């Protein structure tokens, strides 16, 4: 893990969000596994107490593209929302089946693949190629609960 990655995850930990009510989505699950390099931000999905905590510590804004409300923390380094712009994902299922890695819940890789296939951006094509070349990712002991 490079220093930038550690800093992003340390920033996320400092928010003290309840782990049962959030998960890192977007490229974060690939970053933590070293599949892609760290970016300058992390996208987090949330519900309940984690969303309430986010509202208490960050700046709530409405995204002009889709009208979704997000909370931006640390000048946008951590973005927390209650929905996901691409695809029709069940946020509760994504959070409930998240894998805990280094004390942080991450959306399962199969859901990241589905999202990246839907988003279909150039960076997603690169990420999907990297995933296809990566060894098996589902290691024992990392699951919170089996997928629905």
Structure commentary:
By secondary structure, this protein is an alpha+beta fold. It has one domain (3-132): Beta Polymerase, domain 2 (2-Layer Sandwich), CATH 3.30.460. 37% of the residues lie in helices and 19% in strands. The protein is built from 6 helices and 7 strands. The chain has helices at residues 3-14, 28-32, 48-57, 91-96, 109-119, 122-132; strands spanning 22-25, 42-46, 59-62, 69-73, 78-81, 99-101, 104-106. The protein has a 5-stranded mixed β-sheet with strand order 1-2-5-4-3. Helix 5 runs antiparallel to helix 6. 30% of the residues are buried. Residues 138-148 have low confidence and may be disordered.
- Main beta-sheet strand count, sense and barrel state: 5 strands, mixed
Shape: globular
Number of strands: 7
Instruction: Provide the low-confidence segments as ranges.
Output: 138-148
User: What's the CATH class, please?
Assistant: Alpha Beta
Strand order of the largest sheet: 1-2-5-4-3
Total helices: the number is 6
Structural domain tally: 1
Structural class: alpha+beta
Span between termini: 31 Å
CATH topology: Beta Polymerase, domain 2
């Amino acid at each position: 893990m490079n220093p930038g990655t550690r800093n992003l995850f340390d920033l996320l930990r400092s928010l003290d969000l309840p782990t049962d009510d959030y998960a890192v989505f977007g490229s974060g699950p690939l970053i933590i596994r070293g599949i892609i390099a760290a970016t300058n931000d992390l996208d987090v999905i949330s519900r309940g107490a984690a969303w309430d905590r986010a509202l208490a510590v960050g700046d709530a804004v409405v995204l002009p593209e889709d009208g979704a409300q997000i909370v931006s923390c640390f000048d946008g380094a951590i973005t927390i929302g209650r929905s996901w712009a691409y695809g029709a994902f069940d946020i509760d299922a994504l959070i409930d089946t998240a894998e805990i890695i280094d004390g942080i819940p991450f959306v399962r890789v199969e859901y990241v693949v589905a999202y990246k296939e839907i988003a279909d951006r150039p960076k997603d094509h690169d990420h999907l190629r990297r995933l296809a070349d990566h060894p098996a990712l589902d290691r024992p002991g990392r699951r919170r609960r089996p997928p629905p």
